[in-house]
Amino acid sequence: MTVMAAPDPxxxxxxxxxxxxxxxxxxxxxxxxxxLGPSDLGSPCDRRLGFQLARIxxxxxxxxxxxxxxxxxxxxxxxDFALVPLPDGSPRFLVEQKxxxxxxxxxxxxxxxxxxxxxxxxxxDWKIVGKDxxxxxxxxxxxxxxxxxxxTYGLGWRLRGYPVRAVGIGFLxxxxxxxxxxxWHEPYNEAIAMHAIQRANGIAAAxxxxxxxxxxxxxxAADDCFFCPWxxxxxxxxxxxxxxxxxxxxxxxxxxxxxxAPKELA
Length: 266
What we know:
Blueprint: H1 9-26, H2 29-32, H3 38-41, H4 46-53, H5 65-81, E1 93-104, E2 107-117, E3 122-129, H6 131-140, H7 143-159, E4 166-173, E5 182-187, H8 190-210
Parallel strand pairs: 3-4
Antiparallel strand pairs: 1-2, 2-3, 4-5
Helix pairs in contact: 4-8, 7-8
């Protein structure tokens, strides 16, 4: 009779640590969210929005470790900035506030804004990024996805009754010294947020009218396809997944053409 050796305590501990972190990474509120949020609106890929609006189950689950780190840093930033007062003793910064912003059929559009500065009227968002991403944002700016997200938060604050003069993003290095950080800002432009909401509602209306079968006909665009929840290399079933922008034929008429972007995004 063979007697099984008792599990090594350290091996057991390591397995438990992996399981706890893995579970926490995939069960954060943002990871479980199904409806579109401000961070989704800026994707240039209509098909990606279509999959989400049609509630097609994701099939691609890239590493959530970076998001786990980002969540931890966001929590620390929120606790630190919440302590900063104005001269009258009231909080200067409003942190991690949930904002109702509008509607994207059939859901309420809402999101959690990282920071609003009551002193300057600036809406600020944190991004915890790697070296390559930081270098890219330094050369080319934040790109449409993050810009649209930030202006959408700006709309949420304005609807709550706060003045919004500008939006900004703090790109903080995930694996470098803090002094490598990059700050970006521009004047608040409500048209950017409104166009993004209008575009998403156009896609939602097409899905309501024609059903999820219309999703394969939606325009694609290169948008970090590898990280898309519906990316699947070489798939032929475009109703459930997408092989990535480079492998796809171009629809003759992009749905987003129904809603031309403001000149700031053109």
